[in-house]
Write a structure and sequence with these properties.
Largest sheet: none
Strand content: under 5%
Radius of gyration: 23 Å
Order of helices and strands: HHHHHH
Distance between the termini: 25 Å
Number of helices: 6
């Protein structure tokens, strides 16, 4: 924590101190698992289920790709597996902007709390 964070914590009292504790910088895993809660948590669950299905299907295509001896079926299985894996990765990465937005909102709330304390 920085010196400014320590000064903010010292200036707060009671309920404000509890609120500041909730707004502290969260780690990556806390932010990532926080996406599964709240009003839009169901969207994250759906994305993760679809992403998992795509990843498993891509793995199945890869097994078929390596087990095929003819060229045309190998190309079909290989392209299918690669496309499924790329789609799975892009779905997983689509959650990163939401994590960043949550971090920004947390910092804005923290600044609002500091401003409110200075006004009173």
């Amino acid at each position: 924590m920085s010196k400014i964070d320590d000064l903010i914590r010292e200036a707060l009292e009671g309920e404000d101190r509890q609120m500041a504790k909730e707004l502290e910088e969260a780690g990556w895993f806390r932010l990532a698992f926080g996406l599964f809660r709240g009003p839009l948590g169901w969207v994250t669950w759906v994305l993760m289920v679809v992403q998992t299905v795509m990843f498993v299907a891509g793995g199945w295509c890869a097994v078929k790709f390596f087990g095929t001896e003819e060229l045309l079926p190998a190309i079909r299985w290989g392209i299918s597996g690669a496309v499924l894996w790329l789609m799975a990765v892009s779905l997983k990465l689509s959650l990163m902007p939401q994590i960043q937005a949550d971090r920004v909102i947390r910092e804005i709330r923290r600044l609002e709390l500091v401003m409110a304390r200075r006004e009173s």
